[in-house]
Amino acid sequence: MASEPVDEPPASPAATPAWQARCLLRAARCGTLATTSQGQPFASLTTPACMPDGSLLLLLSRLSEHTRHLIADPRCSVMVTGPAPTANPQTTPRVSITGVAEVVDDPPLKARYLAVHPYASLYADFTDFATWRIVPAAGSLVGGFARAFRLTAADLAPDAEAVAAILASEPGILSHCNRDHPAALAAIAGETGDWRMVTADVDGFDLALAERVIRIAWTQPVEHASDVRRQLVSITEQRRGG
After folding, report:
1. DSSP states along 45-94
2. H/E element holding 8?
3. What is the dihedral of CA 16, 17, 22, 25, to 10 degrees?
4. Residue after which a domain boundary falls, among 158, 190, 225
5. How far apart are CA 66 and CA 46, in angstroms?
6. What is the rounded distance in angstroms from the CA atom of residue 79 to the CA atom of residue 97?
7. Average pLDDT of 45-70?
8. What's this model's pTM, rounded to 2 decimal places?
9. Tens digits of residue pLDDT in 181-230
């Protein structure tokens, strides 16, 4: 079973176009990868995972057509979408980013990819697979019908100091929540079960139950572990109706 996002980018004073775009990228479990071959465009389904710094990680087989394209020309684009609020597909929120793909051999990044795509562990270590990273160079957000915004690399990149602070605190956050607050995690997920927090970053966190993974966004970007605690308490109370 594929991983699945749950929450839409939240409506709040912090929901700038840049943050809405990041929330869409972090919640996405599939998207469209656009490459070129001798000037001819080519689009294929891909399964990205958004890293703490906002870059996208892809797990690609070199046997795939799109991988051969990236080897020849690493310039590419990825588009992801959120749920459509109406029957009109044009109201679907979506974001496209452009960048240059590169192969990275980084076990922590690969582990994070597998945290949100656990089913991929079946083939992630096959010799023809490699992790590719795309750092967004620019982007375009369509927040709905007639709501389009151009975004720069700086817009799409979260605050570097906040990223480092939350990344350093993440092991403790995950351990504490999974050990001491399983009922709260189930309440946040809205479903009983042994839900585990598998990632936490400046924009939200991911909960997993077997191969199901759902994304929960903060109400605004966080900067410190203390912000994470306050957000988790608030979200838990809201989900419990408190």
Report:
1. EE--EE-TTS-EEEEEETTSHHHHHHHH--EEEEEEE---SSS-GGG--E
2. none
3. 150
4. 158
5. 10
6. 6
7. 97
8. 0.91
9. 999 999 999 999 999 999 999 999 999 999 999 999 999 999 999 999 99
Average pLDDT of every residue of the chain: 93
pLDDT-derived band of residue 240, with 50, 70 and 90 as boundaries? confident
Determine, yes or no, domain membership for 129: yes
How does DSSP classify residue 155?
A: H
What single-letter DSSP state applies at residue 233?
Answer: H
Same domain? 41 vs 144: yes
| Residue 13 pLDDT | 41
Q: What is the pLDDT of residue 143?
A: 87
Q: Is the pLDDT of residue 125 over 90?
A: yes
Residue type, 85: P
Tens digits of residue pLDDT in 129-138: 999 999 999 9
State yes or no: pLDDT of 8 exceeds 70.
no
- Beta partners for 216? 205
The number of C-alpha atoms within 13 Å of 4 and in the hemisphere containing its C-beta is 9
| Residues 140, 113 within the same domain | yes
CB under 8 A, 24+ apart: contacts of 48-52: 48/78, 48/80, 49/112, 49/113, 49/115, 49/116, 49/117, 50/22, 50/25, 50/26, 51/109, 51/112, 51/133, 52/112, 52/158, 52/163, 52/166, 52/167, 52/201, 52/202
- Asked if residues 86 and 181 have their Cβ atoms less than 8 Å apart, the reply is no
Contact between 160 and 148 under an 8 Å Cβ cutoff? The reply is no
Question: How many Cα neighbours within 13 Å face the side chain of 155?
Answer: 18
The CATH number linked to 209 is: 3.20.180.10
